[in-house]
What does this fold into?
Amino acid sequence: MGPLAAIGAGLAVIGAALGIGKIGGNAMEAIARQPEAAGKIQTAMIISAALIEGVALFAVVVSLLVAN
It folds into this structure.
């Protein structure tokens, strides 16, 4: 694995972590403001986090394939 692949994979992971952290933080604020909507907010948060995780995995694989 070359240095460019490692940088690409690292950037993908950092981006995913920032995105999921932002989703989690905003979801907690939304639940604090409207506790009765907690179920809907949690469902949307989990779906969004799963999609971000999938894109991050795809980005890591692509960076590894392109670098070789």
In short: Residues 3-67 form a domain with the F1FO ATP Synthase fold (CATH 1.20.20.10). Residues 20 and 49 are 6 Å apart (CA to CA). The radius of gyration is 16 Å. The mean pLDDT is 92.
